[in-house]
Design brief:
single chain, mainly alpha, 3-stranded antiparallel beta sheet, 6 helices, globular
């Protein structure tokens, strides 16, 4: 095993740098494909779609953004007509949840279709088998970090 003498040699730094490249690429893709939504807005819509009607706190925890930042994204999506918020109860407490509107479902589907076409055209960086192994390793690593990291979202 290679000895880590500098932080830049660590797995943490390598993940951080890779995440930055992924973030820059997603911004470029969304701008280039004229999605009508940002990458962050897409993530919010996709997360709501995948998890059903959830509250802002749950959404913030899933997307790893503070509640204020999550609230700003939700306000923008609500103004665009892509989500609607409604009152509900959770553990006998009043909470505001959100769901996708018909317009939100349509823009999410359109964005997924455009992204799929783009991703299918991308050159193969690593094989499908290596991709699956990498995703599993990343999930395992992240789940280990979740046990160590204290987040106040």
């Amino acid at each position: 095993m290679k000895k880590t003498t500098h932080y830049i040699d660590s797995v943490f730094y390598q993940f951080e740098q890779t995440a930055r490249y992924c973030k820059y690429l997603s911004v470029q893709i969304f701008q280039g494909l004229n999605m009508g939504i940002t990458a962050d807005e897409f993530i919010v819509l996709d997360t709501i779609d995948a998890n059903g009607c959830i509250c802002q706190r749950e959404l913030a925890q899933l997307i790893l953004k503070d509640r204020a930042g999550t609230g700003r994204l939700l306000n923008t999506l609500e103004e665009k007509g892509y989500i609607e918020r409604f009152a509900d109860t959770k553990n006998n407490r009043l909470v505001r949840k959100m769901k996708l509107t018909k317009s939100g479902i349509a823009i999410l589907k359109d964005a997924i279709d455009k992204l799929k076409k783009y991703i299918d055209k991308m050159p193969e960086i690593i094989s499908e088998e290596k991709k699956e192994k990498l995703i599993s390793a990343i999930i395992e690593f992240r789940q280990g970090l979740e046990k160590e990291v204290q987040m106040n979202i």
